[in-house]
Amino acid sequence: MSSPQTQFLDYLTKNKMAATEQRRIVLEVFLGTQGHHSCEELYEHVSKRDSSISPATVYRTIKLLSDSGIAESLDFGDGITRFECRHNREHHDHLVCIRCNCRIEVVEERIEELQEKLASKYDFSVNRHKMILYGICPDCRKQ
């Protein structure tokens, strides 16, 4: 598997786009953050590194990172699209509290096996998937 930098450069080259210094910085900042970040949050991190990079550049670059397979967009039901790094990350699903918006990353082999059986039943080849379960966390249920 190639590095995310190489993967992004290959994507840009294939699509006849420039590999600018600003895009490189956004990629490095994105790769250096853990968790799920909105474009606004990512912009805050990027602007600390290089204040000349505009929010629009961050938005466009994160879209390119998503299109290239490095980032994955997630909607946790609060109207904000967030992104997380897919490179060298184990697949996981999410549990999201609809009250406090806490997010729990989960891996459950039985669910993965069931999804494979379901795809096989319909002779369907799955490339990737995401599952987000919405509910109320234990802390919020106590309140």
Automatic annotation (TrEMBL):
InterPro entries reported in the protein's UniProt record: FUR, Fur_C, WH-like_DNA-bd_sf, WH_DNA-bd_sf
Q: Which cofactor does it need?
A: Mn(2+); Fe(2+); Zn(2+)
| Transcription regulation listed as a keyword | yes
Whether Plastid counts among this entry's keywords is no
Entries under Pfam families matching the protein = FUR (PF01475)
SUPFAM superfamilies documented for this protein: Winged helix' DNA-binding domain
Keywords (A to Z) from UniProt: DNA-binding, Iron, Metal-binding, Repressor, Transcription, Transcription regulation, Zinc
Signal peptide stretch: none
Cofactor stoichiometry and binding? Binds 1 Mn(2+) or Fe(2+) ion per subunit. Binds 1 zinc ion per subunit.
Q: Which family does it belong to?
A: Belongs to the Fur family.
> Where does the chain bind Fe cation?
91, 93, 112, 129
Q: What is this protein called?
A: Ferric uptake regulator, Fur family
State the organism's lineage. Bacteria, Pseudomonadati, Thermodesulfobacteriota, Desulfovibrionia, Desulfovibrionales
**Annotated residues for binding of Zn(2+):** 97, 100, 137, 140
Gene Ontology molecular function: DNA-binding transcription factor activity; transcription cis-regulatory region binding; zinc ion binding
Q: Which GO terms describe its biological process?
A: negative regulation of DNA-templated transcription; regulation of secondary metabolite biosynthetic process
Q: Which domain of life is it from?
A: Bacteria
